[in-house]
Amino acid sequence: MGTFKIKPTSLGSSTFTLVSGTTLGAFQAGALNSSVIKTNGSGALARLDCALATSIFLDNSVLPTSFSSLPAGFTVVTHNPILNGGGSTNGDNSASWFMQFDSSTESSNSQTGLFTYPNTILSMLDLVNGGFGVRGVGTGTSDALFGTLANGWFISGNYSIQNFSWTISPSTSVSPGTKVTITASSGLGLGTLSSLSIQYVDSNGNTHIDTVLAQDFLSQSQTQVVFFFPQFGNLTTGSTVYIYAIDNGTQFSGSVLAGTLTVKFADASGIYILTPFASTDIIYNAARDGTTTSVNILDPIIKTGFIP
Amino acid sequence: MSPVRDHQGIALTSFNGLWDRGDPDTTPLDHFSQCSNIDFVAQSSFRTRPGVGISQTVSVPLSNVKRIYNYPIQNANTLIVLTIDTSGNGKIYHVVSSSVTYGPILTIAGMTDFAFVPYAGRGYISPFTDYNNGSLIFQSGLASNYLYVYAGDGTNARQAAGAGMSGTMTIANGAAGYTDAGQKVFGFVSQTASGYNSPPSILTSFITSSGNSVSFGSIPTSGNPNVVKRLLVSTITIPNFNGDLSGYQFFFVPNAVINDNTTTALNNISFYDADLLSDASSLLNNLTSVPAGAVLSMYHNRLCLAATNTDISLIYVSLPGEPEAFDQIAGLIVAPLDGNPITNAQEFRDVFYVFKRNRTYSYADNGGDPSSWPLVIIDPGLGTCPHGVATVLDSGGVNVDALIVATYQGISRFNGVYITPELTWKISNYWSNLDFTNNFGKIQMVNSPVQKKLYCVTPSRNLLVGDYNNGMDYKNIRWCPWNFQSQVNSVGIQDVNNIILGADLG
Questions:
Q1: What is the average per-residue pLDDT within B309-331?
Q2: Between chains, do A299 and B26 touch, taking CB under 8 Å as contact?
Q3: Which of A31, A64, A290, B434 has a Cα at 20 to 30 A from B155?
Q4: Residue A10: pLDDT above 80?
């Protein structure tokens, strides 16, 4: 078990104004110069952005660990956004402030600086890409929300390392419909997985998530899971996709990063017609020039019930 | 005789599809605990599912397809297709044949889905999208958007309905003729190519003479290029005119039509008050722009639109035979308010069924205004999603004696009540594991009575196929999921027996 902090790298947006004579310091490494800021009476919002390469700090390290360098089996156990480095806030008690994870998930009014994300545990990728924020609502034009914020703003949490050794094959040039195999050689098994969450970030910085349910696996055993890789959107060839495993709760909770693979873009979208007695699928080529490719029908399988 | 001593072989002679209910060890011998991509043959055989082929032979086929509807026109059964481009714009195309595609006929930023109803050769289009309500994702009409009408000829779809003309006109006594002498108020109604009549406008009062006809000059033309006619309307003679130009009943004047949108004069119109029989005042109550909704349906020759962005439980019902004429007073139905939007509506056996995600209501036409139709709560726990009523060819959702409806409980037959056990009884685990929280709206179903198969696009974006050659009941239907290279978004039937799939980029 360890601890981590996710510190913002930039101020995404802010509608706070400063009391005369104060400044908003840099957000690098989560440090914020002491400031007094006000909400303009009607409320203000600051959204803080994080970066996969420079926002993650493990076990009070002063140097960041990039997302891609996180140890295998890294699993987020808890996470909370912290205002003022975990201390209480000083401020005008006639004002209220609310903490946010992503812009649609917000705490109730709180002054303790802690906000537990409701319902589910997010993955590290979700936490970093989602960022966090703080919203203040004042009752007048001179509301001062924060006194000293020297310890900065960040998300803190605990992580664990799930002991396992999984491999993904193939791991390069994966196209939609590719049969992907996850093999467990030690540690956590695969027999209790309830789904796989396939996550990637597009060119606009938006996180996409595709879920392959266990019922859609081609096969599943304690040592192996086989599934068809789903369509993954307009990603350039060579882009990295993250595969998270979600258990049914028997072995672990939350999600475990099973591994990554790189994709080969193949746009097989379009209008198709079921063709009786056709023994292959004819799909549009990725070039979208009217040419086509004949591919095998994805493996037809059956498995009978228990035969006594 | 078994080749193994003291062992009696077990013959597997019938294969009745997927069983996913309870423990896998309880799977009957004549079912599969797991199956995919197989098709059932006759009563007890199976083979690999049929392959797919391309539907378009054009040099640049449509990509990132989100939704497909059948669009029957006079001489063909065509398709209306929604795609989304890389900028997030929803684009609707009219695919006439494998080699001919019109469009885009409509482009709207943010449109991720649309409702569609063909009527009298035209297509009525309503753009909608998803919105979050707590942890659930619902659908409602696109904000600040409208109902559109498409002529089916490749020209762009245009906003339905429309406002009256503006401006002023002159009125004078014409040549010798006849009217009932006295004060009247005249106006014009513009009519579009789709037959929509605007509210009377350019209201002008004039005192007619008994021995003269009436002539009109400087008649404004409509700024709407789709206007093809302008019709003269008039009040009967007003004994004591109070100055309120719109406070009297208007009638269409016989034989007083300008059959274009360019002529500015209409001369020598004669009529008596007794000739004024066709009421035009009801047009004053009609909406001049119809907001977009997530639901379009036909009931008793009326176009019904529901789940707009601002009123998710409101149903707009048009006049019979006039799909763009919505009375904003008498043509409204408010379904019970529960925070959930209306998701679907379907006529069945002369009753109008309205669905929410977990409610089903009915309304029956009592001959009066839609606002007076009585409500019956059919089921307080089951409903469906925007495309969750299976369509049969191009005839909507009716097949023989029941609707096929996708509910949270499963795929059920509905004949006024939900018939239990549901058709997906054998695969209840499979169905309940689907992501209804985020993707209930992804479900779309078609029923092919020729093949005796149900095709259901699931939230997992594959196809769940139910073969009912052995009977459409929960015991005999045979289920199997089919997977494809792309994620399937939409399914339809074309030309009686062809199953069309729409796939996107994911």
A1: 95
A2: no
A3: A290
A4: no
pLDDT band at A85 (very low <50, low <70, confident <90, very high): very low
This complex has an ipTM of 0.91
Does A118 touch chain B if contact means CB atoms closer than 8 Å?
no
| Band of residue A90 on the pLDDT scale cut at 50, 70, 90 | very low
Per-residue tokens: B483: 């997977």
In this complex, the residue of A208, A212, A305 whose CB is nearest that of residue B19 is A305
pLDDT band at B82 (very low <50, low <70, confident <90, very high): very high
Beta bridge partners of B83: B65, B91
Q: How far is CA A277 from each of CA A136, B15, B50, B310, rounded to the nearest angstrom? A: 64, 20, 5, 49
User: What's the whole-number mean pLDDT along residues B95-123?
Assistant: 95
Give the closest residue to B334 by CA, choosing from B309, B358, B317. Answer: B317
Which of A171-188 are b and which e, b meaning 16 or more Cβ less than 10 Å from the residue's Cβ?
eeebbbbbebebebeeeb
Residue in chain B closest to A118 (alpha carbons) equals B135
Rg (CA), chain B: 28
Cβ of A274 within 8 Å of Cβ of B485? The answer is no
Query: What mean pLDDT comes out for the span A60-87?
Result: 73
Identity (one letter) of the amino acid at B190? Answer: S
- 3-class SS of residue B218: coil
Q: Is B132 in a helix, a strand, or coil?
A: strand
The answer to whether residue B58 neighbours chain A at the CB level (below 8 Å) is yes
Name the minimum distance, in Å, from the CA of B134 to any CA of chain A: 10
Q: Does A283 contact B at CB distance below 8 Å?
A: yes
Nearest to B426 by CA among B389, B468, B381: B468
To which H or E segment does residue B346 belong? strand B342-348
Of A269, A290, A295, Cβ closest to residue B60: A290
Q: Which helix (H) or strand (E) holds B404?
A: strand B403-406
Asked if A289 reaches chain B (Cβ–Cβ under 8 Å), the answer is yes
- Give the closest residue to B238 by CA, choosing from B205, B212, B210: B205
Give the strands of the sheet with B375-379, arranged side by side: B342-348, B351-356, B359-363, B375-379
- Asked if residue A136 lies in contact with residue A144, where contact means CB atoms within 8 angstroms, the answer is no
CA distance B208 to B204: 12
Q: Among partner residues A271, A303, A306, which is closest to B34 by beta-carbon distance? A: A303
